[in-house]
Structure formats: C-alpha cells, structure tokens
Amino acid sequence: MRYGRLGTTGLRISRIGLGCMSYGDPTRGLHAWTLDEEASAPLFRQAVELGVTFWDTANVYQEGTGEEYVGRAIREYSRREDIVLATKVSGRMHDGPGGSGLSRKAILEQVDASLSRLGTDHIDLYQVHRYDDETPVEETMEALHDLVRAGKVRYTGASSMYAWQFAKMQTAAVVNGWTPFASMQDQYNLLKREEEREMIPLCADLGVGLVPYSPQGKGRLTRPRDVTTGRSAVDEVAKAFDTDADGPIIDAVEQVAAEHEVPMAQIAVAWVLRNPVVSAPIVGATKPHHLADAVAALEVELSDDDVRRLEERYVPQAPFWW
User: Fold this and answer.
1) Model-level pTM?
2) Residue 235 to residue 233: CA distance in whole angstroms
3) Catalytic amino acids?
4) Domain 3-311 has CATH 3.30.70.3400
5) Where are the beta strands (DSSP E) in 57-213?
6) What is the pLDDT of residues 115-155, one digit of tens each?
C-alpha cells in the first residue's frame, strides 16, 4: 500500500479507499445486492491486511446498517486510531424535519445518529452527500464548522454537485472563517469524465483532494462489454449507467490490460490514479479480487500511448452522479 495526504491537509490516507455501499442488511434500503454482515466480514478483514486505512460509508446505506457493519468491523479487525473513517449526510433517514437535507437541525441530529451506529466519538471526514438547494449554504457550513469545533468531526467534504455549488459552499466557509471542505467525492472514471471540465480544475486550484467513487465504472471497466454480473442484471443504477458510447472505451481497456498482462480493473484504477488531484479512488469490493486488483493498480505504469488509446474514444455527456 502507498499513502498520501488528503488534498493539502495533513491527513494521511491510503491511496486506495474502501467503499462501503456494498455492505448492509440486504432486506433494508435500496440495494438488494448488498452483502450481509457475515458475507462482508472477509472484505473488511482483507482491507486491513492490505493496508487500506481509508473507509467510506454513508448514513443512508441500507437504512443505517452499513454504518453499523463498518463500526463493528473496525473494532473486530483493526483499531479506531488506525482507520480514517468517512461518512455522509443529507439523504433521507426519516420523514421528520431533521431526517434529511443539510439544515442545522438535520446535520446535528444525523451526526449523532451516525456516531452511535459507528460506535465512535468522532468522524474523520464528514461529507455532505448532495447539495441542498432548500438550505442556505451559510447555515450548512456553520453547522459543519461547529461539529469540528466540538470534536465530533475532524475534516469536512462534499460529494456529487456542480462546481458552482461547491464553490458557493467553500466561499461561505472561507469568508466567515469556518472550516472549508478538504475533499470532493464525485464520480470519475474513463466512462464518466465530465468532472474534468470544471470540478477537477476547481479542486486543483483550491487544494481540495479528490476521492472519486466508481473508478471502475460500476464494474463496466472490469470485464469485456458482452459480460454481465449478478449486480449488473438487477441494479437499476448500474443499468442506467450504460451508454452506447461505452463499448469502444471498454474495448480499449481490455486491449491495454492484455498488453500489460493484468486484469482490466487494474488499468481502470491506474488511469484514475494518474490524475494529480486524486488523493484516493474509492473502490467497492464484494469479492476478494476486487480490492486486491485496486491495490495492485498502484504499481501499474501507463504509457502516454496507453493513455491516448484509453481516452480518445470518450464522448461528452451530461453529468451522472449515481
């Protein structure tokens, strides 16, 4: 494993993050394909063995059971002080006024709920999951700052929004002397590159670290275009992800992987890691080789010709954040 800093902060994280959306009670929440606690345990243990110390979850993952699994796994397989623990807020947890969004009430209520489920007294990276256009950004940023001052949160970040929205929130923090965002978690991979237009240059300018999710394109970049998986057959989000323009890019990944004699997944992650703004791509793992391939990608060196072939077939498209 290699380690680096989260953006320009002093926080040291593993260069590969463990995405924990795949872990949670499959009978609750949106995703019936998630792994229950017994099935997810070997993946948490493997992450520790591989040196993956940056773990990312969210309060909404399987109605909070995802956070519960993560908290128990940290206590079982590691130590709290050895894990950089990230979670998120804004998604709907209940119908009450503090059950969703980024109001002060919601943030203060939901952080305590997350801390309880995670079994910890602090969150290392607390991220707003989506932009809330019904709450003034000043209200949100001051509430997050108060969590840092209270010791419940160490760093703050954001996820999946337009660059102007991120800039608006960051400016509110800077102007008022509040804690600014340290990270941006957005979707970034060879099939979804729209963040290169505005968000990535903005993060580079602000010193914000990118911790992108779906670096393997929801699995589409890990297998030939005509191969399906159990998740791809039932996950409506994954189905909506596909476009007619994906095929030539997937073919290019397959060709470059064959030349390097490595799995396609390693090429996909290696390409994301090349971007200097990326602190750590977040990789979901449901099988042992998923995380092993992501870590192995740290050793893959792509040539300029490799990169040209991987990138040249990309077709501009609308942003896609799911």
Assistant:
1) 0.94
2) 6
3) 61
4) no
5) 84-89, 123-128, 153-159, 181-185, 209-210
6) 999 999 999 999 999 999 999 999 999 999 999 999 999 99
